[in-house]
Structures are given as structure tokens and as C-alpha cells.
Amino acid sequence: MAKLSLSPKIFDVLDFGTPSAERDISRGLEKYFVESPAYQRVRSGAKTILMGNRGAGKSAIFQILAKRERAIGSHVIELSPDDYSYELLSSTMEAENAGSWAKQGAYAAAWKYLIYVLVMKALARKGMRLTKGGGREIHRYIRDSHGAQQLGTLSLLVSYLKRLEAIKIGPIEAGLRTRELDRLYKLEEIQNLLPALRKVLDTQRVVVLVDELDRGWDSSEDAKAFVSGLFQACVSINALHRNLRVYISLRQELYDDIPALYEDAQKHRDLLERIHWSEESLLELIAKRIRHSAHEKGFDIDALERAGDRACWSAVFASPPPGSSRDGSFGYMVDRTLYRPRELIQFCSEALEQARGGASKLPVPYAAIERSEYGYSAERTKDIAAEYRSQYPGLLSVFEVFRSRPHTFERGELELLCLELACGDIPTHGTDSWLPSCYPNELIEILWRAGLLTAQPAQNGRYLGSHQVQHLNLAAVPRFRVHEMFHASLGIDDRP
């Protein structure tokens, strides 16, 4: 196939989109969205709990889902971090150790109360008064109980938790306390409205999207109860009616940090959808964005539509010198990601900006990719460490220990290095809460899960990261390598 050449005019207007789905949705995300099998399962309602690392595309799926549900007439309730942020909530509530009140059941009850009230508000809002099929009771309740108050989303959640808190901590006689708590846990205030709600849902659909639950996460027992309570509420509410669906998204490392979820995985495994990307799907993502950008500006539309994904890439990014990459410039760049769309978009955008500083046409010279790598690598190294700051504070200082070291380690060498770290022979900062108690194998697991290390399970085989395989018997791996994404930032020479 002949090499695809693009008009020089597209060089100045080419745009890969923003790393944020919330901003990208108004710029055409729906037109270049990759409809992955994960999206299809979520769209069908088969999966309601979406999990993935930061930048994996959870918010993009929710943005597209919201837009398409609205297009078919569904009521869509989008809860953003500002609506329910644990960071804000924790500043208003008593800590668990100040009365042992904030258990999973309390949060589950409060979440169910909040979501049911929001759903009923959406169905009974002005201009949609329902007079039959259960609508009258719902409208009357919203008018009488929530018409004048107009509490915000967080205030509704807090108000219910405060009622539970007052009873559990306050000086109330034991029998009365038990009865009142039972009434609150069973949602007696709205329980009698659920049959009416089912009738309304026979003809109307409501979708609730709860995104970015990690705001203010501190790995405390209250934080874990906050999320696990939502999981419990989500499962319960979704059983009410096929036309009511609550979707939640959560970062993988937070899920792994919540025993109430992880240990009870068998009960909700069928509801979980983990987002995974392959090299092929990431190439498709970038190619779609190249075509859309050209289409919006009216350049090379027919040629790009006919061209395959690889041809689209090669028209924008030049190949490296022979022998310097396993799979051209795409292989070089994707090898420096953890297979997250946000990373590849960021790398491509930075390389394009570097090229604009010295070139005047496409494809982007390979030298521009190399020049953009250090800034990209430095940002990603800091971002990855920040993702794990609640579980492993000071992780960035552990990453720094690998600075200027060889990129490959035999198992014995790596275990010795990890032992020196745990014993304090190699100083780190801010790691006292977890590092001294880590055995070498545990620290290797942490660094592999975080993405710093890749593992070679077979002699002369490919090195694999946690973004490529979910499970790997690391105890049997003889050889490890620092992931290429960190090389430039840590001054690691990866030349043969």
C-alpha cells in the first residue's frame, strides 16, 4: 500500500483531543470514541461497576453513556466529586473511632436514601407532574419533604448520616436507639414509595452515574466504608427495576485497598467491568482522533477514511532509524505507556508541540518524539507515585532509588535492593508507615503493580507489566526490568 501523505496545512491544526473526557465531550468525543467490548457491556447494563486505573477511560465511557441515554429520552443523573466528595464529607462527620458509628451499613443506607430521592426528584420535577401509575405519591413526597429545603446532593447524604450519627453516639435509651436505627437502616421514610416508583419506571428510564470516588481518599476505615456502602447500595437499587440503573466507577488500586469489597468479590464479580487496552485498541484510538481532527478542518478526508490505522499513524509520526525500535514510532511510544489512553494522548500531543517548534510539515520527526520524552516521563513518574499516595506515601522517593541504575535486574539483585530499602540502609522520605514492614517480595509486588517494574516470566521472553497481565506468579520470575516509561525521568540508559 502506498504511503499516505497529508496536506501540510493539517500540521498546524492537528489535535489529539484533551486528556479529560469531561472537556472532550464538547469537542467531539462521541465521533472518535472507541466502542470497546467493555463499553458495550456497560451500555447493555450487564456491568454496572466500572474499574480501571486513572486515565484508562472510565469517565469517557460515562460521558458517552450519559449523552446516548439522554438522546433516547432517559433521565440521567450525573454525580460528580463535588456532589459527594469524601474529602468534604469527612470534614463534617465524626470519625469512626469517635463512636464506631460510620460502618458500611450506615453509608449504604445513606447512599440508598440519596439516590432514591434524586431519582424521585428527577421523575417529579416541574413540568413532569405524574398523576397516575404511582406518580402522585412520588410527587407529593418530593413536594412535602424536599420542595422547600432544596438541599444539595452532599447535604442530602450528610443529613441522613447525621441522623444515624446522632442516634449511635447520642445519649438515647438503648431500646429506643435500636428501634430508631432499624427504622433508618430500612429507609422507612421512603420504603412505602418503592412500589409507586416501580410503576413509574415501567414507562420511564433513569440512569445514575457516580464517577471519581477517589477525591480526598485517605485509606481510612471511614473512607473504605464510604465506598463499600455505595457498592452495596448500587447492587440493591439495581434490583428494583430494569429501567433504573446505577453505575459507579472506581480506580483499581482503591478497590484492592478495600477488604469489604475485595474479600466479598464473589458476590459482585459478575457486575464488575475492568477496563483493559491493547496496543491495537490504542492505535485505533489515535487513528480515530487523527481522522476526526482532519475532518473537522476539511483536510484529506477521503484518504484518511480509506487508510488503515497504521497508515494514519505513519502519516503523522515518522519512523525511527533502523534497529532503534521494535515496531516503529508507535511501538516506541506505546512501550512508554501503561496502556492508558490518557498517556498516549499526552505523549502524542507533546511530540506534536515539539515538532511545531522546528518543523513545518508532517510527519512529526522522530527527533521531536525523543525531545518530548523527558517531560512526558517526568510527569508520568510523579503522577504514578501520586496515585498511590494514600497506600504508599513517599513512593516517589522509592522510585528515585532506581535513578541511574541498570534497567534490568536479576531476582537476587532486586531482592537485595528491596531489603536495603526496607531496612533503611538506603534512605527514603515519607515511607515510615509501610516500607519498614515490607518483605522484598512484597515490595517487588508493589512496584510491579504500580508500573515501575516489568517481569520476564520465561527465559528470553517478553517483559510483562501489570497493565498487560492481571495475574502473574512474581515469586517464580527470575528477571525484572524498569518500565521504559520511567527511563528518561530516572536517567536510566536503555540502549543495548
How would you describe this protein?
The protein is α/β, with parallel strands linked by helices. Helices cover 51% and strands 7% of the residues. It has 26 helices and eight strands. Strands 2-3-4-1-5 form a five-stranded parallel beta sheet, sandwiched between helices. Helix 7 packs across helix 8 (135-146), helix 7 (104-123) packs antiparallel against helix 9 (153-169) and helix 7 crosses helix 13. The longest helix is centred in the last third of the chain and has 22 residues, at 366-387. It is globular, with a radius of gyration of 26 Å. Mean pLDDT is 85; it is low at 96-102.
Give the averaged pLDDT, no decimals.
85
What is the overall silhouette? globular
Portion in strands: 5-15%
Q: What structural category characterises the helix and strand content?
A: alpha/beta
The total beta strand count reads 8
Name the strands of the widest sheet in spatial order.
2-3-4-1-5
Q: Number of helix segments? A: 26
Distance between the termini: 33 Å
Helix percentage? 40-55%
Task: Give Rg in angstroms.
Answer: 26 Å
**Sheet with the most strands, sense and barrel status:** 5 strands, parallel
Low-confidence runs of at least 5 consecutive residues: 96-102
